[in-house]
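[worker-b] picked up task from shared queue
[worker-b] task type: protein-ligand structure
[worker-b] ligand name resolved to zinc ion; SMILES cross-checked against name lookup, match
[worker-b] sequence length check passed
[worker-b] input payload:
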Amino acid sequence: MNWISVQLDFRKIFIGDLSFDFAAEIMIRTLLMFSMVLLVLRLTGKKGVRQLSIFEVAIIIAMGSAAGDPMFTQDASIFVSLIVFAAIIILYRLITFWASKSEQFEKVIEGEPLYVIEEGRFTLLDDHSHTFAKDEFFAEMRQASIEHLGQIKTAILETNGNISFYYYTDDEVRYGLPVQPKVYGKKSVQIPLPGMYACTYCGRTEKLEKGPAHCPSCKKNEWVTAINPVRIT
Ligand SMILES: [Zn+2]
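[worker-b] inference finished, payload out:
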């Protein structure tokens, strides 16, 4: 078959068998479903959706099809969606109730907060059971005006994806791994001059001499010049 012979039926793609009557019906269906989605979301008791936990994302996905299909599918009845919504709310309420009763259950459903940085170094990396996107984390640090890891005493990755930072006071700030791309990007396996360097993998800082060096903590060998400015807020 020649590709030129493929004819696209644009009328079918864009209009299909849509009639004027059904177009008007879609307006009403959308209005109804939209109001129902708003109501359901209000009933979950959430104030906003800046960050969602995995459990809440699951709820949204479950609602998505039940909410969207009746808007434009002629034979999808709104009552069926109503049953789905009711089931989702009951499930949501039950799960949040159990989670408030059992810490173990809450951990399974929501995950648990993870220590990412302790005393200016990445600690989560030692634990291979977690997938952890370091570049995303660097972006978070930059948004909190953090210049290097030596400013951070502790960082905790919360279950909703937010990160809580606890800072060193100005006189506690130590040398640390820089997080700005231009500075972090200057990593090298050869130490050019004696001085303070930070391991680009785990953030451990060491006083190093010229030449190659391995990190005593993570055994990696890429280094970048460590910096120690205090935090400006
Ligand atoms: Zn290291």
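[worker-b] attaching auto-annotations
[worker-b] The domain at 114-225 is CATH 3.30.240.20 (CRO Repressor).
[worker-b] releasing lock
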